[in-house]
Design a protein that fits this description.
With about 200 residues, the protein is an alpha/beta fold. The chain has one domain: Vaccinia Virus protein VP39 (Rossmann fold, 3-Layer(aba) Sandwich). It has seven helices and eight strands, in the order αβαβαββαβααββαβ. An eight-stranded mixed β-sheet has the order 3-2-1-4-5-8-6-7, sandwiched between helices.
Length: about 200
């Protein structure tokens, strides 16, 4: 990833993180999957006094998280969360990582086994700018998808409509859904006009 891609993703992540914080209760026990350098957990610890734990696969990001004082283990999410007991966290977060995992169904169900709630955010492939690039015959590149087809880590791109159907078909209750574009909330035609989707989920009883 070049420097422009990194800056674009970091800018989008800040909007993502600020809104995630609104869904976290003070003092909550939080698990952040694919936590990177621990920025989100550090922010939540300062603002909400959470008990935060992270999981990260990348060597450099894991070391950076440790340097930042984050309680993080190095593990591949594809191998599951068997090291964590059921309902041992108030919230499990997967922020802009859903599209980069192979075993999507298994990981979401593991999140809801380990946590009472799950927060999932992802770039919306149905965003109108992405659609125009596809019509023009090219894979989309944007602020929310700052990769070219040949260097992207993304393997399972989806739209908001796709994820709504996924939740319905897998007995997952959507407690809240928020769609944004450039930090603005999108209510009209969200699958067309929103670049980033955020979901607060729990298992159906």
């Amino acid at each position: 990833m070049n420097s422009q891609q990194m800056l674009a993703l970091q800018s989008q992540s800040r909007a993502d993180f600020d809104l995630i914080a609104k869904w976290i209760k003070p003092g909550a026990k939080v698990l952040d999957l694919g936590c990177g350098d621990g920025t989100l957990l550090t922010q939540l610890t300062k603002s909400h006094q959470i008990r935060g734990y992270g999981v990260e696969k990348d060597d450099a990001s894991w070391l950076k998280a440790l340097e930042n004082g984050v309680d993080v283990i190095q593990n591949n999410l594809e191998e599951g969360l068997s090291g964590f007991e059921a309902q041992s966290f108030d919230v499990v977060i997967l922020s802009q990582t859903l599209q980069a995992v192979l075993r999507t169904e298994a990981i979401v169900h593991e999140m809801l086994r380990v946590g009472r709630e799950a927060i999932v955010t992802f770039p919306n492939f149905g965003y109108w700018r992405h659609r125009i690039q596809l019509i023009a015959g090219q894979m989309p590149v944007s602020k929310s998808l700052p990769y070219h087809w040949y260097d992207t880590p993304n393997v399972h791109l989806c739209t908001i409509k796709d994820f709504d159907e996924f939740c319905a078909n897998h007995r997952i209750r959507v407690m809240q859904r928020l769609v944004i574009n450039a930090k603005r909330e999108i209510h009209l035609l969200p699958n067309l006009r929103g670049s980033l989707a955020m979901y607060r989920l729990c298992a159906q009883e």
